[in-house]
Amino acid sequence: MSETLDLSLLKGTPEQREAVSTALLKTLKTRGGAKLKNHGLSDDLVHNLFDYTRKFFALSHEDKMTAKHPPESTPNRGYSYVGQESISSISGYEKGLSQGKSIRDIKETLDMGSARDDLVDNIWVEESKLPGFRKFMEGFYEECFKLELEILAALAEALDVPSEQMKTLHSRAENEFRLLHYPPINASELADGTATRIAEHTDFGTITMLFQDSVGGLQVEDQQQLGTFRNIESADKTEIILNIGDSLQRLTNDTFRAACHRVTYPPSIKVGSDQIIPERYSIAYFAKPNRTASLFPFKKFVTPSTPCKYDDITAWEYNNLRIAKLFS
Ligand SMILES: O=C(O)CCC(=O)C(=O)O
Ligand SMILES: [Fe+2]
């Protein structure tokens, strides 16, 4: 994967800002994902994020189940145990591929949204089980929201779309945020292809900011060689891996393609061997347009030579359409 981009240059000279915005756009378009450093979220904050994530999943099953995700898809909040959600049901959705491959994801997750969300409440374990967890996660979400707006403004400039328009579209912070834990597993259990860590998929939102530990196994499809998945390793867990989601693909009428990704064997493990794949933690923040916003492509991307590919649908309708498939 290409070099890690220094996001602090967005606050540098106008030339530096333009150069890093352009590099970001180019990397996302060609490689599918970009790595970011000096993004403004402090090392301490990210280390605390991983500490709290580890502590949450270390709670007993009974305690985690006190914050359980409803059996249906909405609201997408709370704890999902290993086997509750299966991403393979949406693999290939925006590529128009047939659905229905059944691959089990061996992962557990906690889904959260904004504390300010007036439609959907978060679901927490009792404060005494994990003191400070709720306050930390609510605060971290707000930090991610500020960074999201900065990244979207930079992408808007590089795409030559008014950055105010991009900002307005995301003003309500109706995003989602998830902690993920992949338990240790014998490699032989993943060998026959009926189970994986997380199956191939695209995210639904505009952009996703992902943090991962050093275990490895995340792969993103190269946008210039579709079908080729490349390993993405973070030099440090404070790095952010940025990728494009389906909503930006729609808004840009396919100028930007959502990046397919998955988590599988770490590069160090031999496929089908009896080696134990170590547990893995990651955290994903999914930036999404406001629920009532239209995902109809921006005007500049619809031309006689690039006719409109998408229907007018609100971000909320689209989100629910996609997410319903996950729990069906
Ligand atoms: O665990 C990861 O690195 C990826 C997680 C992911 O792709 C997702 O939750 O959408
Ligand atoms: Fe994802």
Automatic annotation (TrEMBL):
One of its GO terms (biological process) is small molecule biosynthetic process. Keywords: Iron, Metal-binding, Oxidoreductase. PROSITE patterns: FE2OG_OXY. One of its GO terms (molecular function) is oxidoreductase activity. Residues 173-289 form the Fe2OG dioxygenase domain. The keyword Membrane does not apply. Belongs to the iron/ascorbate-dependent oxidoreductase family. This is Fe2OG dioxygenase domain-containing protein. It comes from Penicillium atrosanguineum. The lineage of its organism: Eukaryota, Fungi, Dikarya, Ascomycota, Pezizomycotina.
